[in-house]
Amino acid sequence: MDEVDHQLISALRHDGRASLSDLALGLGVSRTTVRSRIERLQRSGEIVGFSVVLKGDTARDAVRGLMMLGVEGRGADRIMRQLNGLSAVRATHTTNGRWDIIVEIGTSTLEELDQVLAQIRRFDGIVSSETNLLLSTRKSAG
Question: Could you give the CA distance from residue 49 to residue 82 in angstroms, rounded to a whole number?
Answer without folding.
Answer: 30
